[in-house]
Design goal:
CATH class of the largest domain: Mainly Beta
CATH architecture of the largest domain: Sandwich
Low-confidence stretches: 1-32
CATH topology of the largest domain: Immunoglobulin-like
Mean pLDDT: 89
Number of helices: 2
Helix content: 10-25%
């Protein structure tokens, strides 16, 4: 009798512990589980004065799988679903034959998917910039020289990118880029003009670019249409309970040129 009582008490203790564990994980709010309908949105708007185009690109995924039946709008423009475009699969996109599709200001980024998702986010479009000065003034770089640039400052820019690439390699995914630590000038180091061996200057004509950036453009999409890839992916700027990701704007100035003329 005493043995059965002891066993009964042990069973009750175990059940109580199990109930407490269930409560902590399911009803007590200690574990914040992700929703079963997690969405991810990544994208970019690129305005390029060199191609005179504006390109809106985005991916929409649910639980890691790309969606084909979502709806994405930027500033009232619809990004239509494409199986393949710019070498990317399952893409939402729209292209305009003008770099001035969007005037500077605030725009609404809206994404929906059936009855499960309906969210809107703010995005800032910036005005065009211009490269105003290049040093050396004669645009000839001797050996392992560096290049300094100045450009026109623009309101609401959150980051600046300087880039350089061999003129015949623009828009191929090659080249050098880095974020500038100042608002209207910066220096491209000699490393940007070296051959593959990392020591010998790679002589020839180079294009120089400046990008103005807002938000957190998706590099994997932006780099498909930019003359030179972005330096890094900026941190996510979309963080809601049902959707996360990043989206931003890149505005590309008209390029300038320099020529590397001397090897060691």
């Amino acid at each position: 009798m005493n043995t059965l009582t002891t066993i009964g008490r042990s069973v009750l203790s175990v059940l109580a512990l199990l109930g407490l564990t269930w409560q902590l994980n399911c009803g007590g709010g200690v574990v914040n589980t992700r929703l079963p309908n997690d969405f991810a949105l990544t994208g970019v708007v690129v305005s390029d004065a060199n191609t005179n185009q504006t390109v809106d690109l985005a991916h929409l995924a649910q639980n890691g799988a790309y969606l084909t039946d979502g709806k994405i709008f930027y500033g009232g423009d619809t990004l239509a679903y494409r199986d393949t475009l710019y070498g990317a699969d399952s893409l939402y996109a729209v292209t305009f034959s003008t770099a001035a599709r969007y005037a500077p200001g605030g725009y609404l980024l809206k994404v929906t998917h059936g009855t499960q998702l309906d969210r809107s986010f703010s995005s800032t479009m910036i005005g065009p910039t211009t490269i105003t000065n290049v040093v050396p003034a004669n645009h000839l770089v001797q050996g392992n020289g560096q290049v300094s640039m100045e450009w026109l400052g623009v309101s609401n820019v959150e980051a600046w990118v300087m880039a350089a690439v061999k003129a015949d390699s623009a828009y191929t995914g090659r080249g050098y880029s880095e974020f500038s630590t100042t608002a209207n000038n910066g220096t491209i180091p000699p490393d940007a003009f070296l051959s593959a061996d990392g020591f010998t200057p790679d002589t020839g004509l180079y294009n120089l670019y400046v990008y103005g950036v807002t938000g957190a453009p998706d590099t994997s999409l932006a780099n498909r249409v930019l003359p030179v890839p972005l330096p890094d992916q900026l941190p996510d700027n979309i963080s809601e309970r049902e959707i996360a990701g990043h989206f931003g704007v890149v505005v590309v100035a008209l390029y300038d040129t320099i020529r590397v003329v001397q090897q060691f």
